Amino acid sequence: MDPIRNPYAPGAGQRPPELAGRDEQLRAFDVVLERVVKGRPERSLVLTGLRGVGKTVLLNALRSAAVRRRWGTGKLEARPDQALRRPLSSALHQAVRELGHPDPDSVDHVLGVIRAFAQREAGAGARLKDQWNPGIDAPVVRGRADSGDIEIDLVELFTDIGGLAADVGNGIAVFIDEMQDLGPDDVSALCAACHEISQSGLPVIVVGAGLPHLPAVLSASKSYSERLFHYQRIDRLAREAADRALTAPATEEDAAFTDEALTAMYAATGGYPYFIQAYGKAVWDRAPRSPITLDDVQVATPEAESELAVGFFGSRYERATPGEREYLRAMADVAAASEDPAVEAVPTADVAAVLGKKPQALSPARDALLKKGLIYSGERGRIAFTVPHFGRYLREHAG
Fold it and tell me: Which of 184, 201, 233 is the last residue of a domain?
């Protein structure tokens, strides 16, 4: 089949041609936007899930929904080695520009507060050349969001941008990807700011996305975070939605799948959106004609698996040290030995037993893998891969 017309898009964070299985989240977010603008009490939103389930894609789709309603929006991706001030300042600068407030003086005041918030990262009394600002021309507003205490500053900053949005009858939404990588102080400040804003009724919300242990990260920072955010677990697609993710784009290109091919595709992909796109692309390129058959899927499967082994699994495995790789393989062995084939989290004690070591001796490797985002701990004494099918990859490819 014509590779130029191949509709599938297995890119990181790249929106697939058919965003299947996420209608409920999109509808719920529309309700949130309407309620916030009307001054109704509403919680900020947190999306959680494994890598490859489409969190970033959904985050971008929610942002697009906010833009269509003329909200001001900004997005950032958290990184373990970066504090919150700079990326958040850039995101809020963009949000204020999108808002389209008609009063230049009011806009300049808020931009000056954002600039003060950003420059405070360099420390009080920093030389001009060491100060950073997110491309803002407005003069710095001293004495607002620049105390140096991130919690105080963020509350003041959100209050000011919320007031600006309320003036024009719209809202501000901040979208944070990889939210679990925020530092402890930044997480605490973000929770405090969201709490303050929700109490004041200002139209500002935070929409975060992260790995499954993100709720535990937030809860460890502020006990009230369990009531502060609305948590939505983003999981693999059900069979019907997975079929639609394949057939809808194919139909647009005058192509189709047989029922047997769709069954084989679901078995191979497990319903994970990234895998659906990767297998869909490989099968399309290999199939000689429409409809795509079971034989076509079987022929293309090795190619899809090879591509995933290099780009999706292998790139992550290469980030681990030899000792960390041993730990990962032991995790895979423990999961394979489980009586439950759908097991995700495995006991750390069992991993230690496979390696013939005490759990305490393996703490450095486990902690390093946690920081690298290759594994996560959803409950005490148990760990799991952040990447679906990673255990199978390790057993088949990583010797």
Answer: 233
